[in-house]
Amino acid sequence: MKWEEARELFPDQFLLVSILDYHYEGDKKIVDEVAPIRPIKDEDANKEFFNAKEGTMVYHTGNNNFVIHIRRDPLMKVRRI
Q: SS3 for 39?
């Protein structure tokens, strides 16, 4: 379902979703389609965010758009093994 539809079904709350479709705009990943898994209580949102599996995310439906900012830190060094 579109993010707008998820916002209507689960107004003003955190939601654990599976990300189905997205596109990039510069350094932003714009999520277009989601599959809601379950609503999250406000007090559990931080824990659930860090425990989310790959392809899922906790996001608040108060946000008009589902945007993930991609951080590309040029000062970060990656050690190759």
A: strand
Average pLDDT over residues 28-45: 96
Flag whether the pTM goes above 0.85. Answer: no
- Closest to 39 (Cα-Cα) out of 61, 63, 55: 61
Residue 79 covered by a domain: no
Q: In 39-60, which positions are buried (b, 16+ CB within 10 angstroms) versus exposed (e)?
A: ebeeeebeebeeebeeeebbbe
Asked if residue 76 belongs to a domain, the reply is no
Whether residue 75 is contained in a domain is answered as no
Per-residue model confidence (pLDDT) at position 76: 60
